[in-house]
Amino acid sequence: NATILSLLTFTWVGPLIAFGNKKTIDLEDVPQLDSGYSVVGAFPTFRDKVEADCGAINRLTTMKLVKSLIISGWKEILITAFLALADTCASYVGPYLIESFVQYLDGKRLYENQGYVMVSAFIFSKLVECFAKRHWFFRLKLLGIRIRALLVTMIYDKALTLSCQSRQCHTSGEIINFITVDVERVSNFSWYMHELWILALKVTLALLILYKNLGLASVAAFFTTIIVMLANIPFGSLQEKFQNKLMESKDTRMKSTSETLRNMRILKLQGWEMKFLSKIIELRNAEQGWLKKILFTKAIATFFFESSDTLVCVVTFGTCMLIGIPLESGKILSALATLGILTGPIYNLPDVISAIAQTKVSLDRITSFLRLDDLQFDVVEKLPVGSSDTSIEMVDGNFSWDLSSPTPTLQNINLKVFHGMKVAVCGTVGSGKSTLLSCVLGEVPKIS
After folding, report:
1. Per-residue pLDDT tens digits for 151-170
2. Same domain, 402 and 361
3. Which pairs with CB-CB distance under 8 Å and at least 24 residues apart come from 51-60?
């Protein structure tokens, strides 16, 4: 029910904030989430799309997962792309008009009311830039929430249906890492989704403005910018390598921590608390070592790109002096404003490359988890209630935890339990009591 002005200025959220200023906001006070951003509304369509692309979830690849995520949020992606384009174009109106504005102040008027037109253009471009940027960021946040909800739900559903062999590959600590670390990194990548093509657009617009003002000196600025960008390649490779090592060490630490917490009673009984604490601290130190390498690499890249704006300015104006291009005040101000805008995306380039490396590693990890085998749903045949007086029945059942083993874990099992019977499963340690109960639940792979 919000008006266009309310949507533009975000005043539609004002009543909720004012209400929260008076009393603590309860769940019933918060408006309902749109079905497109809720798990109930968005996940079934996303799951159907993934299954249609792959046929079976165990044939899922990283590219197919990315494709499904893009299709599920294509509207938001297109809207944010348009807003990013509007923000980028509006940000260059000022640098483009600065030279003409300086000439107008010097008395060189091309037409009547030129000053009013230029001031109006400055104000309008800033308004467009402001509104486009705010709504761009708001839409990116919505897209990140949607991606996070879809991936968390898919991982949770997968964890409930994992086969016993698959559970041996990933501990509960690793699954927690998938949700708290990997999914968070993938959802945060929505902030960097458009940065690469925006960078290319900003470089193109900047070079056109520089060529208009400085002529051939813009070629020197172009090659300097390209060299600065190419310097990111080794940093990006190192970032991806260190991110892989960091996540492996994090999984190892979480696995040890989870096992320690699950067996805390035994550790206290034996007095092994400090021994296991030192082991966890050792794993944590190894994880911190990889984290330090990531931060050092990022710091070197940031230092390099912090000085890139000065380097581009020196090369550009130095070339003007060498080839004899006159440096007038209007041209200098326009060039400085243009280079000032250009240094923003160049400075953010290390963060973008780091985010791409982190997202790729996280998507590969999530995909490898989703490809694991599920439980065999045809192991247990369930009959309608009341159709038989038998509650549980097995006939010549052969089951094995390890399908590659020549000897089944349990073989030739015959069991029949009627409704209301009290049954006790007795035996020595390791004789297969728990395995038999797992067979009843369908958790052990059935051979025959």
Report:
1. 888 888 888 887 777 777 77
2. no
3. 57/158, 57/370, 57/371, 57/374, 58/371, 58/372, 58/373, 58/374, 59/371, 60/367, 60/370, 60/371
